[in-house]
């Protein structure tokens, strides 16, 4: 689109993700924003398209032993291990908190077996939440620990399973630790996914050369932050060309330029993660920055921008 076509400079930032209308295309990446309570002094949750919660399981998870966070060049590593209070406390405390705000609620769901996922999804079918994001980077304990999201058949199978219980649209969150991201995206689409989100963290390792020990107690952890952004953009582009369902892009988004880049690559919406830790107001800045970009280049609505770099 040529600059100047949207001559009145008014922009419509609304996006439709699997039948759910967000006021703008910006949400938060699971595990980086809690359920919003920690950030509401710094960011106006009413101005976000959606809030994506920290992962929740059918029972409380203690997570991994410490140390479980480390800085890296251009980002960080975490091996928190999806520590969470369990679905009962989550429903009682976190959903009621988020319902105070005019934003969509996306609940991230984790589990170690098909039964675990389905129990949480079934419970959430009775709750006032808008969408579910299924974290398939979890280890499948019944298949020797390989993540559900690393095998196309397993990914399709877990998607079909949760769809049987879900009342809300289901977003399948894809792992980048695979040979072919288009193959994984097609697998969950075949399983009935209403949307996909990507990328989750890349698996990495850090060693303290002076102590000659692993920095993380878990040895490996998920790498996130600006250093992974180009990889995420490539994978979002590939996934968007592989499936017809909406794509939510994430991975190293630190400012509005990064977010716009994701949208031009094919993302219908974007999710901001690690950047929240060093700038709690970054989501507000990104919403405003996307708006200014649209005004500068004459885009009337977000969909005019999606995937136009081909």
Characteristics:
310 residues; alpha/beta; TIM Barrel; eight-stranded parallel beta sheet; four-stranded antiparallel beta sheet; 8 helices; 29% helix; globular
Categorize the overall geometry. Answer: globular
Query: pLDDT under 50 segments (min length 5)?
Result: none
CATH top level?
Alpha Beta
Secondary-structure class? alpha/beta
Say how many strands there are.
Answer: 16
Overall mean confidence score, pLDDT? 94
Number of domains: 1
First-to-last CA distance: 13 Å
CATH superfamily: Aldolase class I
Main sheet record: 8 strands, parallel
**Strands ordered across the widest β-sheet:** 3-16-15-10-9-8-7-4
| H/E topology pattern | EEEEEEHEHEHEHEEEEEHEHEHH
Query: Which architecture name does CATH use?
Result: Alpha-Beta Barrel
Report helical residue fraction.
25-40%
- What does the oligomeric state look like here? single chain
Task: State the helix count.
Answer: 8
Radius of gyration: 19 Å
What portion of the residues fall into strands of 2 or more residues?
A: 15-25%
What fold name goes in the CATH topology slot? TIM Barrel
Secondary-structure blueprint:
Layout: E1 15-17, E2 20-22, E3 26-28, E4 50-52, E5 69-72, E6 75-78, H1 87-98, E7 104-109, H2 114-124, E8 131-135, H3 152-163, E9 170-173, H4 181-190, E10 195-198, E11 202-205, E12 207-208, E13 213-214, E14 220-224, H5 229-242, E15 247-250, H6 256-265, E16 269-272, H7 275-278, H8 282-297
Parallel strand pairs: 3-16, 4-7, 7-8, 8-9, 9-10, 10-15, 15-16
Antiparallel strand pairs: 1-2, 5-6, 6-14, 11-14, 12-13
């Amino acid at each position: 689109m040529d600059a100047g076509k949207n001559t009145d400079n008014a922009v419509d930032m609304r996006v439709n993700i699997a039948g759910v209308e967000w006021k703008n295309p910006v949400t938060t990446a699971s595990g980086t924003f809690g359920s919003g309570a920690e950030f509401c002094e710094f960011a106006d949750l009413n101005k976000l398209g959606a809030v994506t919660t920290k992962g929740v399981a059918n029972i409380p998870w203690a997570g991994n032993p410490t140390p479980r966070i480390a800085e890296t060049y251009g980002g960080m590593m975490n091996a928190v291990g999806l520590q969470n209070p369990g679905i009962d406390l989550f429903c009682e405390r976190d959903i009621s908190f988020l319902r105070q705000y005019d934003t969509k609620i996306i609940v991230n769901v984790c589990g170690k077996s098909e039964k675990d996922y389905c129990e949480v999804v079934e419970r959430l079918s009775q709750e006032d939440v808008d969408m579910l994001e299924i974290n398939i980077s979890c280890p499948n304990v019944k298949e020797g620990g390989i993540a559900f999201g690393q095998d196309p058949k397993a990914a399709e199978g877990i998607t079909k399973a949760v769809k049987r219980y879900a009342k809300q649209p289901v977003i399948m969150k894809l792992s980048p630790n695979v040979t072919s991201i288009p193959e994984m995206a097609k697998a969950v689409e075949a399983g009935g996914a209403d949307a996909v989100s990507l990328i989750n963290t890349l698996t990495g390792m850090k060693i303290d050369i002076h102590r000659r020990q692993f920095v993380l107690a878990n040895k490996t952890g998920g790498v996130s932050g600006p250093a992974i952004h180009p990889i995420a953009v490539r994978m979002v582009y590939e996934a968007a060309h592989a499936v017809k369902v909406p794509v939510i892009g994430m991975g190293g988004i630190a400012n509005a330029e990064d977010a716009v880049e994701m949208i031009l690559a094919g993302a219908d919406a974007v999710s901001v993660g690690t950047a929240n830790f060093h700038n709690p107001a970054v989501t507000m800045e990104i919403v405003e920055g996307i708006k200014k970009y649209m005004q500068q280049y004459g885009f009337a609505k977000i969909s005019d921008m999606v995937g136009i770099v081909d």
